[in-house]
Design a protein that fits this description.
homodimer; nicotinate phosphoribosyltransferase; TIM Barrel; seven-stranded antiparallel β-sheet; 17 helices; elongated
């Protein structure tokens, strides 16, 4: 139903251009109707994640892409040509779109910020058509990158200081996902990625060794290792499980003996199948006995926060983990219930009352109370203009009248922010199995501004700001 | 470990250029070592999906992107410049890459083909460096699009003829995923998508109505409906659950009465929350009593094949479904165990023997036996050069010496192929809860070519070709 057939068929090429047409059609049909009826007032939309029992905190990511997109928001001639072919839109509306840019304000938590369900991570205030047209793009961009940064943080926590490397590119949900997983996991403390294009785009350290096919091509395992070492004498990590893991370790040692004679040391071996705990312990013993205590054991194969944690608890001798598919698609929770809701239009606060989908009306801010060591104690969702006392407001003005307020931070700054925040979040909230619920309250002032407040939302405790 | 730090940091813009750097680093390090050691022989790699209890069949998708990419495979100056900064690669190797294109052959199942686990969906034969460098890209591209086309086919089956519309863009895993979900679900019989950019790129019909915010802005529901109808008199579908669904239906009827006076009919109402079965039955009754039997009921809200099936079985009066997030991320199975394995190098068949990860050596073909009505009876994985009798070979030569063999089929042709195939697959294999296992055998000839065959793979029955 409600199907509009378009005539344009363009053969795909390898470039994806993301612009205002990255949207659900209904954003445009609503815009057309607003335009027809001279509905031009200022609206505020709030972007937040509804509660899920799969995640106890979130790591904000994706704002850089959002700001870049808003900065250049513009319908091209080509876009307008396509919209014309749908037969849905008046010439007057299409002319209006031709001149449209983003002229509004964006309040947002900087990337790398730790936050919780129901807390707005971003709010847009703009003429309603502009604010509405962004919905699909904002949900997709912030939603996915936050999903992955959060999954990566869970892996980081589980690894207890051991380095993690993103290996997900081959199994991510498409091209953009692969690139963003590398960025999001780097924000959340990963050491490197196997993803070369992400290395190029973002300057993320890249990492890689060899596949089973390499060993198969040489046939003889020791010969394959020798060839690889020969090309990368400083960076040799040998994959030892193509035929038999323990045999593979012995072959690696044979080659490492020769390397040592030439003044090089074997950086590591990689395990990629079988019982990682047993094999890593045995490999460690063999390496140590053979005089290679410095050779690291690197493991990959279905790792996520649960398998990492389990391997460490069961005494696996693993020095670093390659984390692939289950990180790259956030396999245990492949989407977030992220929404973008109208909370204010012109001079009135607005919210939706559909069952189970209650929204907090009004422009908001999130205030974080901390102890003397800066550790996080409690968050309070309040009205934007509340005075926080010594609580820290988490959302910052990122865009004003369509212009950037501050330069976009570097990826390193973002990564550092995450690291700092993560160190201030108590262990009990980070537990990957049974996390405690971090306290999030709603300020009395914000509560007062909820007309017909049904009193049934999740954090009903009244707390006062400090 | 094995971390190479790159100096380049490029600010993201909204264009993603997918080329040879869309790869795991190890493809390049292996290539460098092959280059150093003059390993230049011809290799065949086989792309297939390992068995999963979540899916009983697969729908091939993604080949168009693959052929487009291979056709243009080329390292740009910029790519080479980045690789140089890593300090990993010799000038000689980088010069070699500068001149590299894809000169090999591709055998593949056309998009829209139904296939099964362990069956090769694509095989590449090329000089080993070329074939190896494609691994990550091929796995990502074929894997994701096949994942979604398969999920969409399951939804189609569950809907028993009712139209389905892709609503997933806001929650897909990134931008490319959103676009490819629209295409993959259209291949698998979806009617349309809400995704405007996919409509533009692929000519897929687009569809959309209004959001809750639209109703909130007008405050009065009937006023919002009237405004929308006013702009889209021929395409009005009203979202009725912003405040109270049944009230919403009554408001829709009020407006529809006025529309009728002007010669227009209300196409439909949309339900987006609450008990879809109960609400749709009540809404149907109210609409029918009020004299609007022609007004369709459209439902969205967490649908996937299971919820669609359940809603229909429980007597929901739903005429069409919007299928969003759970389709867009294939929520119950967000990745496939898809692999790309070396099966032949120079003149010998090759395979990996790692535990649980057995590969069938040699160049292959998949033969499908059908009955007189063309219905699928059994598949046989055989050697490429076997003579099939009256079984149908499913893989076709798509590229020869780096050139396309046939023009890339239109999306409509691909969709038709899927529709035809799907009609020939027995219901019992399509069951979304407890599907029967479709018989896949290995030809005696292929079995004979498995040196040291461990005899422990999944389909050990010996079957002869007809």
């Amino acid at each position: 139903m409600d199907v509009y057939r378009a005539s344009a068929t363009i053969t795909m090429n390898q470039t994806i251009q993301i612009g205002p047409l990255f949207t659900d059609l209904y954003e445009l049909t609503m815009a057309a109707s607003y335009f027809d009826h001279h509905v031009t007032g200022t609206a505020t939309f709030s972007l937040y994640i509804r509660e899920t029992d799969k995640r106890s905190y979130f790591v904000a990511a994706g704002l850089e892409d959002v700001l870049n997109m808003l900065h250049k928001f513009h319908f091209s001639e080509d876009d307008l040509g396509y919209l014309r072919t749908t037969g849905l839109f008046s010439d007057a509306f299409l002319s209006f779109l031709a001149d449209l840019g983003f002229s509004g304000d964006v309040f947002a938590m900087p990337e790398g910020t730790i936050f919780f369900s129901d807390e707005p991570v971003l709010e847009v205030t703009a003429p309603i058509i502009e604010a509405q047209l962004l919905e699909t793009f904002l949900l997709n961009t912030i939603g996915f990158q936050t999903l992955i940064a959060t999954k990566a943080a869970r892996c980081l926590h589980a690894a207890r200081g051991r380095p993690l490397i993103d290996f997900s590119l081959r199994r991510t949900q498409g091209w953009d996902a692969g690139i963003k997983v590398a960025r999001s996991s780097y924000i959340a403390g990963f050491e490197a990625t196997s993803n070369v294009i992400a290395g190029k785009i973002y300057g993320i350290p890249i990492s890689g060794t060899m596949a089973h096919s390499f060993v198969s091509v040489f046939g003889d395992e020791a010969e394959a290792f020798t060839a690889f070492y020969d090309t990368f004498p400083e960076n040799a990590v040998f994959l030892v499980d193509t035929y038999d893991t323990i045999e593979g370790v012995r072959n690696a040692i044979k080659v490492a003996d020769n390397m040592r004679k030439k003044g090089h040391c074997l950086k590591g071996i990689r395990l990629d199948s079988g019982d990682m705990v047993e094999l890593s312990r045995e490999a460690r013993k063999i390496l140590d006995c053979a005089g290679f205590p410095e050779t690291k054991i690197f493991a990959s194969s279905g790792f996520d926060e649960f398998k990492i944690s389990d391997a460490i608890e069961r005494g696996g001798k693993i020095d670093a983990f390659g984390v692939g598919t289950k990180l790259g698609v956030s396999a245990d929770a492949p989407f977030l219930d992220i929404v973008y809701k109208l909370v204010r239009f012109e001079d009135r606060d607005v919210r939706k009352l559909s069952p189970g989908k209650i929204t907090l009306a009004g422009k908001k801010q999130v205030f974080r109370k901390t102890d003397r060591q800066e550790r996080f104690i409690e968050d309070i969702i309040g009205s934007r203009e509340e005075i926080p006392g010594d609580a820290i407001p988490l959302m910052k003005k990122a865009m004003e009248n369509g212009a950037l307020v501050d330069p976009i931070p570097s990826l390193q700054e973002i990564r550092n922010r995450f690291g700092h925040h993560f160190s201030l979040l108590d262990e009990k909230y980070k537990n990957i199995y049974k996390p405690a619920r971090y306290p999030v309250a709603i300020s009395p002032r914000l509560l007062e501004h909820q007309p017909e407040f049904p009193g049934s939302i999740k954090h009903p405790e009244k707390r006062s700001l400090p």
